[in-house]
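Hi everyone, sorry if this is the wrong subforum. Our group has a chain we'd like a structural model of before ordering constructs, and none of us has done structure prediction before. Sequence below.
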Amino acid sequence: MEEPNRHRPGSPVRSGIPEHGRVPKYYAVKARISELVTELGEGGLLPTERDLAERYEVSRETVRQALRELLLEGRLRRSGRGTAVAGPKLEQPLSLASYTEGVRRQGRRPGRNLIGLERFPCPAELVAAVGAEVGEPVWHLERVLLADDERVGLESTYVRVARAPRLDVDFQPDSSFYQYLREQLGIAFGDADEKLETVLATPREALLIGTPPALPMLLIHRFSRDQDGRPLERVRSLYRGDRFSFTTHLTRLRP
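Answer:
Right subforum, don't worry. Here is the predicted structure as tokens:
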């Protein structure tokens, strides 16, 4: 006999069924639709909400709730007026590598759309992060992140104008900023601190990325230093929670 708690590695224990055995109706429907998603494969179109409601003998609202969760998890995506099976999430390493390098490693085409490049006097809250003095000129570079022309995130980079004085002239906005620093300015990265959290996008951010405001986002704050240990940049990167996962390699702490 199969053990009651047996499950596939990586899956929720008991497939999400609570110990008392009572499962919400929408969750049971979600499990059935999930099986259908696996059968259809990437790009496959799901039946309409009405057809799914008739197939599983539930209300359309129950089907709608199940579909909402699968959309938020990144299993499904909107396609015109219908719903299609989404491709696998992009895996971005938590490392001192650029977004461009991470996306290319997965066989996807990275890109960026420039929202704005401006210089402004450094405020007190940015001083330590970029190694500037209050009032010193600082660049703010804001770009939408793309993967195969799909909008997947929003990136804001802050750096002293003195570190990249010709950023507005020599830099191609759709290219890698890290590559520009390394190859054009001879600046190498040393180390960085990162903080990862989940947030909801602001109305402006949701509009730029092309997502509903209720979609959970993964937000990364990065504070980078150069090879000499001097503060270099502050980056605020917002990624779609339904299209991204993050990986890292851990080693044993030495006493």
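For your construct planning: Confidence is low (pLDDT under 50) at residues 1-6. The helical segments are 25-40, 49-56, 60-72, 99-104, 127-130, 167-170, 177-184, 203-209.
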